[in-house]
Amino acid sequence: MGSIKERREVYDLVNKSRWIQGVWNKEPDFIKFIYREDLILLRCIIRRDKTAGNLVCYIGVPEGNVYYEKDTNEAYIPKFMDFSFTGFAKHYDKEFKGEKKHWYLGFDLGRDDDLSPGLQIFDASTEEVGAKVAEILERVKKEVGEMPKKTYKDVKFAEKLLVELAQQIIKDQKAFIVAKARKGK
């Protein structure tokens, strides 16, 4: 199994004063770490979306990796959600020591069934607005049924998901190397 190296957390990058209270108020807004297994190093980043408040995750793969320069359609990894971003990101490369640029695969935890604290309509500033929202929600409930419960994907969840993704990318990279070596024989 691999390990996490050079972990760093940054707090208070996002103004959460208008959001409803929740675990996100005590979480960092930016985390970076390196996931290492054998001689393979992957750059991992978790950052908070400044508007929606959900977490966005990135994993940087070096040149030569099976996922290097793959677009969002080509970088499909079963079991994991679709990537919403693939590309170079100099601003993330600067977070890590070294000159090598990496290709980043990114996904956000602000999907349909995810709670985004910055977008919660229940943080209404007046009772009148709150009453209107309640009325609208009641009509929607009658027409389409119970609304699905949204859950907030916290930092622990994001980090666990990134580590699992890193392990899968490393497994795929090792299989790619073995297949390439067999072709060469």
What does this structure look like?
It is a single chain. This protein is α+β, with helices and mostly antiparallel strands. The protein has one domain. The protein contains 3 helices and 6 strands. The protein has a 6-stranded antiparallel beta sheet with strand order 1-2-3-4-6-5. The longest helix is centred in the C-terminal third of the chain and has 30 residues, at 155-184.
Report a brief summary of the structure.
It is built from three helices and six strands; from the N terminus they run E-E-E-E-E-H-E-H-H.
Features:
6-stranded antiparallel beta sheet, about 180 residues, alpha+beta
Write the layout of secondary structure elements.
Layout: E1 3-10, E2 30-37, E3 40-48, E4 55-61, E5 85-88, H1 90-93, E6 103-108, H2 127-144, H3 155-184
Antiparallel strand pairs: 1-2, 2-3, 3-4, 4-6, 5-6
Structural class of the helix and strand makeup?
alpha+beta
Order of helices and strands: EEEEEHEHH
Give the amount of beta strand, in percent. 15-25%
Number of strands: 6
Q: How many distinct domains?
A: 1
* Averaged pLDDT: 86
* Oligomerization status of the protein chains: single chain
Low-confidence stretches: none
Spatial arrangement of strands, main beta sheet: 1-2-3-4-6-5
Instruction: Bin the helical content.
Output: 25-40%
What Rg is obtained from the alpha carbons, in whole angstroms?
20 Å
Main β-sheet, in a few words?
6 strands, antiparallel
Tell me, briefly, the overall form: elongated
Q: Termini distance?
A: 29 Å
Q: Give the helix tally.
A: 3
